[in-house]
Amino acid sequence: MAVTTKEFSLNHLAIIMDGNGRWAQKSGLPRVAGHQQGVETVIQIVDECVSQGIHFLSLFAFSSENWGRPREEVDALMGLLLQFLSSQRQRMLDDGVRLRVIGDLTRLSEPIQKALANAEKETSQGQNLTLILALSYGGRDEIMRAAQKIAQSALDGDLDINKLDNKTFFKFFGYWGYP
Ligand code: FPP
To answer: How many whole angstroms from 20 Cα to the centroid of ligand 1?
Structure first.
């Protein structure tokens, strides 16, 4: 299906990953099989975005609330994430996909933080699609962290709070693909 018409050209697609568990349950499979299938679907969507000339794909993959899931499920999800980063590395480089990550990454394990930082660095020259992975992400959480950074910047004398405008405000947020 083409996503470009004379009037409309899709530039940024955002997807909240959901329903993996229910899909697995319906198919009589364990939840983790649903997550594996979810990753396969993500790979297809990334491919399709590149083919369709969509420039930004934001995937809400793991929310702040998802930390409350059973330990085994969280571990399985982190394992799938690592697997995705290594299995898709070459494909992202070949297809000009640039990976960026948003969220409270300090809650992720050190090996995962390193793998993500490495993938961001390696793919930084990708020109076709920016894939934004929201991990350990929450909207309120992001606003709170931005507020903390703004307050710190004002305390340090680097920011005149009376001159805080829309553009400066968004500089304190994670990467969203906007100037
Ligand atoms: C939603 O299904 C899916 C998640 C909360 C986790 C998705 C994350 C991964 C598969 C990790 C790897 C991610 C990438 C992008 C490589 P659900 O469990 O909420 O399903 P349910 O609502 O049916 O229970």
So the answer is: 6
